[in-house]
Amino acid sequence: MSQDKLSVVMRILDSETQLIERADRKAIALLSIVGVFMVFFIVYYRLVPVNPVTVTLTASYFAFAILSIASLVMTVRPRIQREEETESQDVEGMPLCEPAFFDGIRKFPSLEAYRKVLREMMANESAVFNIYTRQIFNLAQINAAKYKHLHRATFITIAALAIELSIIIYLFASYMGVGIMPPII
Questions:
Q1: Which of 71, 133, 145, 168 has a Cα at 20 to 30 A from 78?
Q2: What is the signed CA dihedral for 77, 70, 72, 17, rounded to 10 degrees?
Q3: What is the pLDDT of residues 115-147, one digit of tens each?
Q4: Do the Cβ atoms of 99 and 118 come closer than 8 Å?
């Protein structure tokens, strides 16, 4: 494979890897935000009066917070449906396990078997291209799953925080704004 083709493939591979890292960083940041707001809410939960409005808002807040946490965990660890590999070798006779990807490397029984396959792969430009394109495709599938869960988690987190803020506004209006909002009993 010529050097310019290999550099294009490696740039695409690097781009897909960076997208995975970005999705993980965003999910962890959102998870931290949800955690901080949940701790804040739990600490001041004793000040929330029990009435139909606060019970409804609190129940919906916890439901949205749990859904948000579940979506964020699915972002960090997405479930990917893999294609069943019926053949152990591709068209060129190379094993389908990826000698350039950790999941494929761990399938080799020994270091010597890995070296042999890697040496054979490096001698065949078409095999190198096939292996890296499969790896790019697999990373793109992972990215699709991660960003689907991340988008869902973002909207659910915003809804949970909006509900929590509405509880705070309700409490402020009922405690401080005497006459602004009649107490609901």
A1: 133
A2: 20
A3: 888 888 888 888 788 888 888 888 899 999 999
A4: yes
Two tokens at 53? 């409005």
CA 33 remoteness from chain centre: 15
Instruction: Write down the residue that tokens 């950790």 correspond to.
Output: 102
- List, as one string, the DSSP characters of the chain: --HHHHHHHHHHHHHHHHHHHHHHHHHHHHHHHHHHHHHHHHHTGGGS--SHHHHHHHHHHHHHHHHHHHHHHHHHS---PPPP---SB-TTS-BSS-TTSHHHHTTSSSHHHHHHHHHHHHH-HHHHHHHHHHHHHHHHHHHHHHHHHHHHHHHHHHHHHHHHHHHHHHHHHHHTSTTTSPPP-
Interatomic CA distance for residues 182 and 180, integer angstroms: 7
Tokens of 66: 């749990």
pLDDT digits (tens), the chain, 185 positions: 566 777 888 888 889 989 999 999 999 999 999 999 999 888 887 778 888 888 999 999 999 999 999 999 999 988 766 655 444 454 444 445 677 777 778 888 888 888 888 888 888 888 788 888 888 888 899 999 999 999 999 999 999 999 999 988 888 887 776 555 555 55
